[in-house]
Specification:
The protein is α/β, with parallel strands linked by helices. Helix content is about 35%, strand content about 20%. The protein has nine helices and ten strands. α5 links the parallel β6 and β7. α1 crosses α2, α3 runs parallel beside α4 and α8 packs parallel to α9. The two termini are about 15 Å apart.
Length: about 300
């Protein structure tokens, strides 16, 4: 059975934009689109049907069904004939979408929805899925209809391989160039030569630059041969990673990063770089964690 692209909706215009993006992703992959609305109200034991004093089309249940109908209509308008699978699932959005992501090839959400506080840059659902989702997560944010290359953020960690495969496969499907960006500085923690080795201290910047150049080449090894149609630009910058990727997002159509890198604390599920991009990138962001490399 073909795994679907999953999109979560809440009735907001932002979530309908996510449906349109998810429909295009599903069409590109040749798979169905699963549209899910998490319906928490039955758990709160409130009236779901229309009030006796109100219109017959009123009530929370009818509203939820309307959300799904609108989402299906947006998907059909975006990709006519696309197979859709809409479902209303009782539960709160964080746990429902995390569970649904187990069977998805990709999960798509808006950066903001109806819930939360209007002053926040990013909704809790997007953050939770990026940290706990069991498929790649695409968060819609930034400028409308972004153009440019797919930007891949690389740090040379073993966890980055899934992000590399995702970025190459996406660039190939979209016929877009790929920018493989690796930022380094004298604050960059160098990668140990062998697993279990202590983290070395390097003060020779020429040697460190050579090591980072080697690291970038090793991270891409084999992928360019697998996707010869993808035009790749290797971009090695002496800079801090977060501002370098946020700056690159201003002219990109998508930024792809791993959920965790080689820096920071191993116990964290979502690294500081991916969190910064989810809050500040000027284009959609795909966060990849422990998933097949070429999703």
């Amino acid at each position: 059975m073909t795994r679907p692209v999953l999109v979560g909706i809440d009735g907001s215009e932002e979530s309908l934009d996510a449906v349109a993006a998810a429909a295009r992703e599903a069409a590109d992959r040749g798979c169905p689109l699963r549209i899910v609305h998490a319906f928490i109200w039955p758990m709160l034991h409130v009236q779901l049907t229309a009030s006796a004093l109100g219109p017959t089309e009123g009530g929370l249940l009818n509203q939820a069904r309307t959300f799904l109908d609108e989402a299906v209509a947006r998907a059909e308008a975006t990709v006519p004939g696309l197979e859709t699978d809409p479902e209303l699932i009782t539960g709160e959005a964080l746990s429902v979408l995390a569970a649904e992501s187990r069977d998805a090839v990709l999960t798509v959400v808006a950066s903001r929805g109806l819930g939360g506080f209007s002053g926040l840059l990013l909704g809790s659902t997007a953050v939770h899925l990026a940290a706990h989702g069991e498929s790649p997560v695409l968060v819609l944010r930034g400028r409308p209809d972004p153009q440019g290359p797919v930007v891949l953020g690389l740090d040379g960690s073993p966890q980055a391989d899934g992000a590399v495969g995702f970025a190459f496969a996406t660039a190939a499907r979209r016929a877009a160039p790929l920018v493989a960006l690796h930022a380094w500085s004298n604050w960059t923690p160098p990668a140990p030569r062998n697993p279990g080795d202590p983290m070395p201290l390097v003060t020779d910047l020429d040697r460190l630059q050579d090591d980072e150049q080697r690291l970038l080449a090793e991270a891409l090894a084999g992928w360019q041969a697998r996707y010869p149609q993808v035009q790749v630009e290797r971009r090695l910058l002496r800079s801090r990673t977060r501002p370098a990727l946020i700056e690159a997002s201003r002219t990109a159509q998508l930024v792809v990063v791993g959920a965790r890198g080689r820096g920071g604390f191993a116990g964290l599920l979502l690294g500081s770089t991916s969190q910064a991009l989810l809050h500040h990138a000027d284009c959609p962001v795909a966060v990849i964690r422990d998933v097949p490399a070429d999703s």
